[in-house]
Amino acid sequence: DAGVIQSPRHEVTEMGQEVTLRCKPISGHDYLFWYRQTMMRGLELLIYFNNNVPIDDSGMPEDRFSAKMPNASFSTLKIQPSEPRDSAVYFCASSRDRSLSPLHFGNGTRLTVT
Amino acid sequence: QKEVEQDPGPLSVPEGAIVSLNCTYSNSAFQYFMWYRQYSRKGPELLMYTYSSGNKEDGRFTAQVDKSSKYISLFIRDSQPSDSATYLCAMSATAGNKLTFGGGTRVLVKP
User: Rounded distance, CA B98 to CA B101, Å?
Assistant: First the structure.
């Protein structure tokens, strides 16, 4: 079990550029979550998928953010255009089902927008 | 006011001491309570979970939930330097995994 894999680990970009974050969940997990972590706001849920279908995107800050899950083994979070206030650590997590199975987090992508 | 409040610390203790962590919350619908541990530059990992009120023990870790006071606690006995991390409480109203996290408490266990 390789765990949840996120790429890149670090991303530095200039304001206005498009940023794409990638996630490979654990095989067999039905749920995939995107979180954002900042010092000010802590860990916030952005969006989650069940069986590749977006279930709740109420945490997505604004239209600049979009997420897709084209298949069970891959998801992307895109920010276009990026702004300095988007600087944060973005985590992807997956879980097996809707019960209290634990969330398995990746090691995050640290995004810096200058 | 945040839905889940947690003292950011840092909480510094000598090795072998008991670490006491807590969270308060405002949403009375929360029924599922979890504690996650996060090492620097890593993702959070689940330590403990409890349902409704009561205590749960797992090795050196004890989780307590007091729903009447909207207060949860985590105790770490015989703390080790390897316990140095940030501890996040998380809670949910349903058995689904849409969790609300506290801001985390940074713990330092000094040898």
Answer: 10
Q: Is residue B97 pLDDT above 80, yes or no?
A: no
3-state secondary structure labels for all residues of A47-72: EEEECCEEEECCCCCCCCEEEEEEEC
Q: How far apart are CA A73 and CA A84, in angstroms?
A: 30
Give residue-wise pLDDT tens across range B55-78. 999 999 999 999 999 999 999 999
Q: Give B-chain residues touching A4 at CB under 8 angstroms.
A: 43
Q: How many CA atoms lie within 13 A of B38 on its CB side?
A: 29
* A92 within 8 A of A36, measured Cβ to Cβ: no
Q: For testing the chain A interface, which of B2, B97, B100 should be mutated: the one with the most A CBs within 10 Å?
A: B97
Inter-chain CB proximity B44 and A106 less than 8 Å: no
Q: What is the pLDDT of residue A1?
A: 63
Interface contact A21, partner B, CB < 8 A: no
Q: What percent of chain B has pLDDT over 70?
A: 97
